[in-house]
Amino acid sequence: MLGFVWRGYDQMRSEKPSVDGQDLERSITQLLAPRIDRAMSGDEPFYIQHGPFERETMQPPPAQPPQYDIAFVLRKEERIMWPMEAKVLETSGAVSELGYLLSGTTGDTFQNIARKTPCKLEAHPAFSSRPQRLSRHTRNIPSGKAYPSKFSCHHLILEFPNLKRASGQ
Asked: Cα(122)–Cα(134) distance, rounded to whole angstroms?
C-alpha cells in the first residue's frame, strides 16, 4: 500500500496540479487519492477511497461518524480499512503522522515527531530512500472487540515546498 502512496505522490509532484490554497489539506488529499488509484493494478484485495467514514467508533446519533482523509478499503469486508490521516505542516516543527510539508526539512520533521510523541521512529527497510518512518505501539482493546493490541504507524512526509496557504488562513 505504501508503494502506491509514493507512486501517486511522485505522479502528483511531476504533474503539478492546481491546489486550492484556501483548503490545502483537503485539496492535496483529493488530488492524491486518484493518483494512488492509478498506481494500482486493480487486482489488489483493496481499493483506495477519499474521505470514507469510520463507523466503528461513531457516537450514538445524531453524531456524525469520524472521517478519514484517505483509506485503503478491503474489498471482501469494506468495514476493514487502513486509514491515512493527513496534515499540512507549515514548517518542520509542526508535526503529525502523515504530513504535507510546505517548508523545512524532513529530517528536522522526524526529529520533532520523535521529541513530541512517546515513540521511537525507525527507518522502514522497504522505503529507506523515502522520508518515511515507522513507530510501533500497543493499545488497550475495548471489551468485546477483536482488534490486535499491537499496531504500527507509518509516518510519511510528502513535500510540497512551493505551496502556500491562501492569505487569511
From this structure: 5
Tally Cβ neighbours within 10 Å of residue 13.
Answer: 13
Residue 139 near residue 157, CB atoms below 8 Å: no
Tens digit of pLDDT for each residue in 53-94? 988 888 888 988 889 999 999 999 998 999 999 988 888 877
Helix (H, G, I), strand (E, B) or coil at 25: helix
Q: Where are the beta strands (DSSP E) in 8-129?
A: 46-50, 70-74, 81-84, 87-89, 98-101, 122-123
148 pLDDT tier (thresholds 50, 70, 90): confident
- With a CB cutoff of 8 Å and minimum separation 6, the contacts of 41 are none
End-to-end CA separation in angstroms for the chain: 32
- Give the predicted TM-score (pTM) of the model: 0.87
